[in-house]
Structure formats: C-alpha cells, structure tokens
Amino acid sequence: MRSWISSLFAASIAVAHGVSARAATIEVPADFPTIQAAIDVSVSGDVVLVAPGTYSGAGNRDLDPGIRNIEIVGAHGPELTFIDCEGSGRALWVHGGQSIDMKLEGFTIRNGLHDGGGVYVENGSFITIRECRFENCQGTGPSGVAAVRGQGDLVDVVFEDCSNLTAIYVLQWRGGRITRCRVEPNEVSPPLAGAILEDLGAQSLLVEDSVFRGRFAGSTLVPSGSGLTVRRCEFISEGAEAPSLYIAFQGSTLAVEECTAVGNVDIDRSTTGSITFDRSILGGGCGEVQGPDFDPVVLVCCAYDPAAASGLIHAFGPQVLEDPGFCAVACSDVGGNHELRSDSPCLPENNICGVQIGAYGEGCAVATTEPDGVEPLDDPTSIKIVSRIPAGDSVRLELPESLQGDVTLQILDCSGRVLASWQVAGNARTVDLSLDRQIGSGTFFLRATDSLGSLATAKLATVRD
C-alpha cells in the first residue's frame, strides 16, 4: 500500500482518539490523477507532491484545501511544474482558517482569471508561498482585488505579466513577510501599480530584498495597523510623472530602510503617523519627494534633492544631496542597473554618514579615460569654483552656460537646510560670493537655478579659524 493509504487509516484512528496523525506524502499523478483528488484524501500535515508536467482542467484549478493545513509542492520546481488555469478560475483558494503551515511551493501558475486570479487567501487564513512564478494571472471583480491576494509569507516569488482587469494591483498582501520577490509589469498593458502592501490589525508586514515595478507606481504602501517595515527594496515606475513609491495611511508606523526609489516619491498629503526613511535613495536624481501636510517625514542619512522636495520633511542629521551615481546611464532607463558606481556618494567610504545608502552596493567602475579621438568635456551642469579662500569669507564661482537669465544661488547644509541665498542678475557667469560668518567650517552644497528651472550644483568646503 502507498503512504497515503496508511495516512488515511492513521487519520481515522487519530480522530477517534484525539491525537495527531502522522504526515504522509501523496503523489500526483502516481497516487491520484489530479491535484484536487490528492488534496481531498489528505489531512493536515500531509504533503501533496506533484510530478513535473502541465496540470490543467477540472481538478487542477480552483484548488480548495478546505480547512486542511497541507503542503502542495512541485517536485522539481517552477521550471518543470505548471498549473495552467486556461483563463478560467484561479489556481488556489485558501479560506478555512489555515495557519502559516499551509504551503504552496515549486510551481509556475499561468493564466488565472478570477478574484485573486493566481491565489486568493481570505477569512483570516494564512499561507506560505515559496519558489513560485505567477504568469499572466488576472484579477477581476468590482471590488478590484489583485491577481494575487492574501496574507502570510512570500519567499522567492516572481510575478510576471500579471495585471488586473478592474483594479490596479498585481499583488495585495496584508501581513507576514515578503522576501526576495519580484513584481514585473506586463509590457503590453502593465498594471497601474506593482503591489499594494498593507498591515491590518495585529498583523505587521515585513518586506525585504524585493523589486516592485508598475505603470502608476512601483508600489503603494498603506499601513494601518501594527506597522510596516520595508528593507533593501527597489521601487520603479514605468510612467514618467508617476511615483515609484506612493504612501497613504492614517496613524500607523512605516519604516523604509536601505531602499531605492527611482522616480517620484509621493506621500499623500493627508497622511498621519510615523514615517522614517533610513539610508534610502529617494528620487534617485529622477524625481521629486512630496511630503505630507501634517506629521513630518523623517529622513536619516538619505540621498535626495532638497530642491525637488516639498511638504513636511525633516532631515535628521547629515544627508547626501548629490546624484546617487547609478550604473544606469539615464533616468529614462527604468529597467537599467541601479547598482552604484565606484565613486557614488551612497557608498559608505564616500559619504559623511559612513553607511551604505540604497538597496544595492557597488556594481560598476567609473570610466577614467575618454574614448579615442574624443576630447573630455566639462560637466555642463556643474558650478566651477575658480578660487577659494578656505579661511576667508569669499569665493569666486563660474556658472555654466546651461543657466540662462537671472539665477538664484543657494548654499545648503547636509540636511538640506538653506543657509544663504543670492540673486545673480542677467547672464553673469563669474560671481564673487561673500560668505556670512554664520556659515562655519564644513562641507556644503552649492545650488544654482535659473528661471527655466535648469539646475547646476557643486560642493563647497570651508574652514574657519
């Protein structure tokens, strides 16, 4: 007899005597031809082990474990084991009050079409999904649920070419942990947002080492309960003006640590509660940072452009007010490499905080020579410091040709606070600044903007005796 028969007998004895049954492994198709048939004879603790192949049709979609806590496992991983919903129904519905011991592992799930077109977890149930891929899974329904929706643990899960026909999210997750996951948009009709990440009631949510991409926003964070922590994640928006990260919540706690948001970061103006960005790249030189109107957002050693920031933003301590130095060559290269060049100010050896800033470390070197036959060019957006008087009160600057007409010249400290400001009339290119003695010794950020919004920057070091 195979192990599942022993399991059924043990389960009947266990129920009669009020003790736990011994877990068994039930194989598909060796023991049962369909996944649901194997589930129907299982008891909590059993493993439904599915051999390589493509499983479709009745009994292989809309899988329902009832109240069982079981493991449904693709024996050789998502590269060889597929559940094809064929545009009719979802892969799995978990609704019986399961714990985190309910597991789905090692599958590629394709072509789901339902409320929660890939997997739907509800009624306070939990699930662990590990090493799975969701491809072309579509969420439907007037409530606008996501292609995959629920709570529990997601580990090493990829969402690709998934979207929602009536709402905006690929993934809606409400508690537990999301680790090493990736949400990639549909290239033809991308979702408006890669994910909505919530924490509800007592269920906090930890999101780490993951990438979120979308057309409207890389991700939307809506904490409303115990707290949401996001670490070492990347958020990217496909839309030129859309936020890479959108945050809206009331009276909760959000901690964003060592993350990279490429594009606008938009915090809803009505948001209240505690938001802290720690060692994170905001905007990445490619977007603005919009703070709320009520409780201030706290930045701790972050890389951002204070000229592109608004709302209540409190920069606590030194910040990096320079281009983060991505390996990607342009902001338009949203799918590019957002690791850091070797000269990036976000590397610990290159910034005043002495810490790693952003989701990634060093990924490329800086070219030290120009190609053959090409003369090196000055940076057209840099202010040239012609002469310094380190222990004195004046400095001579040369403004770049990219600035036109009247120019506003400012000195900022490392937290983004404006210390001094001057108006430079006309097309003057050489400017002598007399520095107020209130500007002490240290490294400062020099910024010039013209009436058209063109920007030029430089660092300025001063020494006071």
Q: Main β-sheet, in a few words? A: 29 strands, parallel
CATH class of the largest domain reads: Mainly Beta
Strand content: 35-45%
> Any guess at the CATH architecture of the largest domain?
3 Solenoid
Task: Could you tell me the CATH topology label of the largest domain.
Answer: Pectate Lyase C-like
Uncertain stretches of 5 or more adjacent residues: 1-20, 368-380
Shape: elongated
Number of helices: 2
In oligomeric terms, what are we looking at? single chain
Total number of domains: 2
The structure class reads mainly beta
Describe the protein in words:
The protein has 2 helices and 41 strands. It is mainly β. It folds into 2 domains: 362 residues, 3 Solenoid (Pectate Lyase C-like), CATH 2.160.20; 79 residues, Macroglobulin (MG2) domain (Immunoglobulin-like), CATH 2.60.40.1930. The strands form 5 sheets. The protein has a 29-stranded parallel β-sheet that branches. Strands 38-37-40-41 form a 4-stranded antiparallel β-sheet, with no helix packed on it.
Write the layout of secondary structure elements.
Layout: H1 3-17, E1 25-28, H2 35-40, E2 47-50, E3 53-56, E4 71-74, E5 81-84, E6 92-94, E7 103-105, E8 108-110, E9 113-114, E10 119-121, E11 127-135, E12 138-139, E13 148-160, E14 163-164, E15 169-179, E16 182-184, E17 193-199, E18 205-208, E19 211-214, E20 219-223, E21 228-231, E22 234-237, E23 243-247, E24 250-257, E25 260-262, E26 264-267, E27 272-278, E28 281-283, E29 289-290, E30 297-300, E31 309-310, E32 313-316, E33 340-341, E34 362-364, E35 384-388, E36 394-398, E37 407-412, E38 418-424, E39 430-434, E40 442-450, E41 455-462
Parallel strand pairs: 1-2, 2-4, 3-5, 4-7, 5-8, 6-10, 7-11, 8-11, 9-12, 10-13, 11-13, 12-14, 13-15, 13-16, 15-17, 15-18, 16-19, 17-20, 18-21, 19-22, 20-23, 21-24, 22-25, 23-26, 24-27, 25-28, 26-29, 27-30, 29-31, 30-32, 33-34
Antiparallel strand pairs: 35-36, 36-39, 37-38, 37-40, 40-41
